[in-house]
Amino acid sequence: MDTMLILGDGALGRAVEAAALGRGHAGPSRPARAVRLVGRPPSGRHDPAELAGASLIVEASRGDAVAVNVAAGLDAGCRRFVIATTGWAGDQARVESLLVRHGAAAVAASNFSLGVVLFGRLVEAAVELFGPLEAFDPYLVEWHRRSKRDRPSGTATDLARRIVADHPRLTTPDDLEVVSVRAGESPGMHLVGFDAAGETIELRLTARDRSPYAAGILAAADWLERAPRTPGLHAFDPIVDELIARDPIAA
């Protein structure tokens, strides 16, 4: 029996476990699959023997554990990964090299929500409209739970990159006003605004829970298993394009 192994027993890992168990993996086009949630070991590194038998590993732990967890999974024989953790940009080259060397593929994203990906595209369109107008100043506000470590979040960093890339008056992310709030238990809110003397335009995305992230992670897992993929890291955007083409969003 195939096994999906989830590394990280925090809120995201538990959400992925619940979604995987709840969707019913057995069927004509999807073989029966076991789902196993594994917390962080006291040593900080998983024993490859404990990960043996995993056909796919979801990394949902911490940024500083991504590289060692992927290495352990590769040593255990797994060749498909979904990396849903943020704060590991400094290890990206190392992870890519490990995957290629072992002939393995991973889908990685700062946020696996379908809504977040489409929100990013809306932001790019808004920058194209408001960027040339000197009266409008762009800004970005993000709010997450008090325990979230990275500031700004990976999603906010990606949105800032999109804004700066298309804005004629911004050169680097430091040119953009970005505010990070860490309070309470918010699973995630991102707001992009354009402010002028007489009016303000805002685009806001608010996550009510982590189910959209879990759904996207399972979509990435399905994509990896439908066909052989080129070794290395893959973005989530092409998978979103496939989802939209297969299931058009109602107007």
Structure in words:
- The structure is a single chain.
- With 251 residues, the chain is α/β, with parallel strands linked by helices.
- The protein folds into two domains: 2-112 and 210-246, 3-Layer(aba) Sandwich (Rossmann fold), CATH 3.40.50; 114-206, Dihydrodipicolinate Reductase, domain 2, CATH 3.30.360.10.
- Helices cover 37% and strands 22% of the residues.
- It has eight helices and ten strands.
- The chain has a six-stranded parallel β-sheet, with helices on both faces. Strands 7-6-8-9 form a four-stranded mixed β-sheet, covered by helices on one side.
- A hairpin with a 4-residue loop joins strand 8 and strand 9 (200-206).
- Helix 1 packs across helix 7.
- The chain is elongated.
